[in-house]
Amino acid sequence: MSSTNTVEVKPSPLGGKGTFTTRACEAGDVVFSLDRPLIATLDRARIADTCSWCFSWTDLPGLSGAGINQTAKVNWCSGCKKVKYCSKRCQSQSWKAIHKRECKELASQAEPLPNTVFAVIQMMEGLSVGDQRYSSILELDAHRDDFEKAGGQRWDSMQLMATTAMSVMRAKGVNVAGESATMSMCVLMCNSSRLVTPTFDPLGLVLDPAIARLNHSCDPNAVMVFDGPRLAARALAPIREGDEVLISYIDNTAPYGVRQGELQSQYFFDCKCTKCQLGNKAAQDAFLDPTSDFEERIKLIDDLLPKLVDDPAWPRHVLGESKHEQRLSALQFYAYSYLDSPDAARPTRDAASLRKAIAIIRNTGVWPLSRQPLPALYRQYAIACLEGKRYNEAFIAMLRLHALIDPVVYPQAHHPVRVVHAWSLATLSKAIGSDPTSEFCRALQSQGVDLSMLFLALLFEVVEQVEKSHGSKSLFGQTVGGALQAMMEPGGELDSQFSLMGVSREQWPKIVEDRIKELWPKVLAFAENDDIAAQIDEAVA
C-alpha cells in the first residue's frame, strides 16, 4: 500500500532494521503514513457493526461521540455472510483487493473466524499467489522458538489457530505445511498492531512490514493515529533529519516493571530507553509520602499480600524488598487486577466495581492521580458509565482525566489521546448542559461551572490542537470543525446567545476569551475537590 515517502529503512542501533526520517519534522507533522495496511482484520465483536473495508461503524462503545466515521447501516457479504460492508463501493474494493480469494472458504465456516486466524489466512493467500507486497513479511522476526519456549496456554492457542488457518488453505487446494502456518502465526503475534478508531476504541488488528519496522521506545517521538483505514505516525516532538522514528508498542505511561514485563512477554526484548534506564525512579512511577494513618489505610492490602506473591504476574509489580515497597507492590497488583485488557471491545466490569477500586486505591493516600493504572481505571469507569447511561458520573471522571491527569501523563498538548479526552468531555458537557434546569447542572452552576461555556472552551482547545493530533482534514478533524462551524455560523448557538445580549460578532472573541479565563480556575477547583464532586454525584444519583 502507498506510503508517505519521508522515511527510509536501514539498520537500527536498537537491533534489526528501523525507520529513519529523511527530513526534519516539527511536532504534529506526519512522519510516516499508509493509505491502508497490507492486512487488516476486525475483532469478532466488531464484525456485525463495522464495515470490513473502511471501518465505519454503527454501534461502537467508548468515548467516540457520534458522527466520527459512523454509518447508518452495514450489510453482510451476500456470498460468505461473514463480513459486512457499508456500501457497494467498499464491497467492490474489498473484493478486488482480497475478498475474492477468501469468500468461498469463509462461507464454509459455521462462525466468523478469530481475527488472528483471518489475518494468517490473508498472509498465506497473498504469498501463495505470488503477490510481491507480501514477500517482505517473510523478513520479519517470528520469535518462533521464544513462543514455544514460553509455552503455556498462549502457545497451545497459537498452534490451534495456525492449524485452523492451514485447514482453510488446504480446503481451497493450497498445500500449506504445518510449520509454515505456525511461523506465519508467530510473525503475526509479534509484529501486528492494534486497529483502532480515530478515538482509540479497539476494532481489530493490522500487519504491514512498514509498520513493523517502526521500533519501540517507552519515551517515543511519534504516535500512531488511524483515520479509517489510513494510518499516520505523527511527531510528538521535533525530530531531526536522520533520527529514528520510535513509537510505543505498549502503554508507555505504565510503571517500569509492568512495561518491561509486557515487552518481554509479547516481543521478547528488554527496553533500555532513557525512561527505562531510570527504572522505578522515573517521575511517573513515584508515590506520595505515606500519611500518619497509612497503616490503617493499607490494611486491606496487608491481608491480600500473601496471596498475591504466588501469582505468576507478581514479578512485574515488585517495587522492592522492604515492607513498604512490598505493600506498594501489592497495591499496584491489586489496582491492575481491575483493569480490562486494552483489546476489550466493551467494559467487562460494571461502573460500581471500578468506582470501588478507584476509591480503595485513592484512600491509601499514597497514589497520585496520574500514576497508572489510576488514569486507565478512570477512563474505563467513564466508558462503563456511558454504557450504563450514567452521564453525570462519566462527566466527573472525564473532567478529572482532562483537567488533572492528562497534562501530566501526556505533556504534549497535541497528544492524540489528550485531544480525544478533551473532545469526549466536550460532547458530555454539551449533552448534559442541554438541560440547564437539571439538578446536576444547577449543582455545577453553584460551583461556578457553566457547562455551555465549558463546552465552548473545550471545543476551542480541540480545534487548536487537531491539526497536529489528527489533521484537520481527517474524519475526526472534520467532525470537530463541523461542531465549531455549527456554533459560530449565523443562527448558530453562539450567535443566538450573543444576539439576545445585544453583542456584535466583532465583540465575541474578547468576551469568550474573558469568560473562559474566568471559568477555568473554577473547573480546576471543582475537579480537585473530592468532597464536592462526591456530594454532587450522590445528591443527583
List keywords for this structure.
single chain, about 550 residues, mainly alpha, Beta-clip-like, 4 domains, three-stranded antiparallel β-sheet, globular
Please provide a written account of the structure.
- The chain has 541 residues and is mainly alpha-helical.
- It folds into four domains: 1-37 and 208-248, Beta-clip-like; 38-207, no CATH class; 287-367, no CATH class; 372-541, no CATH class.
- Helices cover 49% and strands 9% of the residues.
- The chain contains 22 helices and twelve strands.
- It has helices spanning 44-47, 88-97, 103-107, 115-128, 144-150, 152-171, 178-191, 209-212, 256-267, 294-297, 299-308, 323-337, 351-363, 374-387, 391-409, 416-433, 439-446, 451-469, 475-488, 493-501, 508-528, 530-540; strands at residues 7-11, 17-21, 30-34, 39-42, 75-76, 84-85, 193-196, 202-207, 215-216, 222-227, 230-235, 246-247.
- The strands form five sheets. The chain has a three-stranded antiparallel β-sheet, with no helix packed on it. The protein has a three-stranded antiparallel β-sheet with strand order 4-8-7. A two-stranded antiparallel sheet has the order 1-2.
- A hairpin with a 5-residue loop joins strand 1 (7-11) and strand 2.
- Helix 4 (115-128) crosses helix 7 (178-191) and helix 11 packs across helix 12 (323-337).
- The longest helix has 21 residues, at 508-528.
- The protein is globular.
- The N and C termini lie far apart (51 Å).
- The relative contact order is 0.09.
